Write the structure tokens for this entry.
Amino acid sequence: RDSTDRSISSADDSASLIMNVSGKLVLIQRERGSGDEMLYSPPTVLAGSCEQVWLPATANREKPHLTLALWLYCGAAGMRVWLPLFPREGESSHAFMARRIMLHFPLNNIYPLAILFEDA
């Protein structure tokens, strides 16, 4: 999904694929090759021991950092939030990975079942 409007409108848009493979959360980015050829970058492991992943269905303009974030529960490693970083006006655009930061929250004896994005 595109991090700004959360949809893919044409073949020119960049897209990323996020998969949970045996507890490893993997990101595969789509890149434009020569001509009309679409290439994929090598997989990048975002987190290990990932048990649950949450992504809001809709973005909230008042809370973009929370509603465009990827929320992960990683068992004993606790909760992780992959937050988007929005560039300042006039800054050059960075790669998808450079526009995000991962925050870690240790959880003791808590197992999250849901994230209430609108109430955050």
About this structure: The longest strand covers residues 24-32. The chain is about 5% helix and 35% strand. Confidence is low (pLDDT under 50) at residues 1-12. The CA atoms of residues 86 and 92 lie 11 Å apart.
